[in-house]
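[agent] plan:
  1. take the single chain provided in the ticket
  2. run structure prediction with default settings
  3. attach structure tokens to the ticket
  4. add a short note for the reviewer (M.T.)
[agent] executing step 1
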Amino acid sequence: MAAHSLGGRLLLATDRITMALNVIGTLLIVAMMVLVNADVIGRGLFSAPISGVPELVSMSIVAIVFLQVAQTFRSGRLTRTDALLATVQRRAPRLRAAIEFVYAAVALFIMGQLLMASTPLFVRSWQRNTFEGTIGDFTAPIWPVKLIILIGCTALMIQLFITALFAAKAAIKGGDFSQEAADEPF
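[agent] step 2 finished; step 3 output follows
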């Protein structure tokens, strides 16, 4: 890939952002593991559980999924039928690229719908300062998780758009549609 080109720099920046979101998601997993273990130890040894652990864990699961979904897609680890796609790739590479284009385009549309549906939920939770938990025991605002959903959807949509571009190029011109195989970004 021509990293010095504008397209190459945009791909590199996108990959770095996607990886940063993935790392944040991983750190959140570690934090939740520490919190749950501390809660279990506190509950068992001291009869003193940590308030809000179930609420934080339930909110964190959603956040982790959306923080890591773009990198999961980018690295080809989302659920798919690789055996079928590998067979199609060997026999008709352009057809494989066309299938990948349709997949990315449909997923892009679905994620766009999710983004549009989630935006008012974020705005409402921000404006109303909606929280999870029980007043007097533990409360946490839910807007950060709603914001992470928007960020994750956007990051995945960018990855899907890039994949659709490379797949369309490969379907029309032939060759490998992957970002790594591209000499020229677009």
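[agent] step 4 note for reviewer: DSSP finds five helices and two strands in the chain.
[agent] ticket updated
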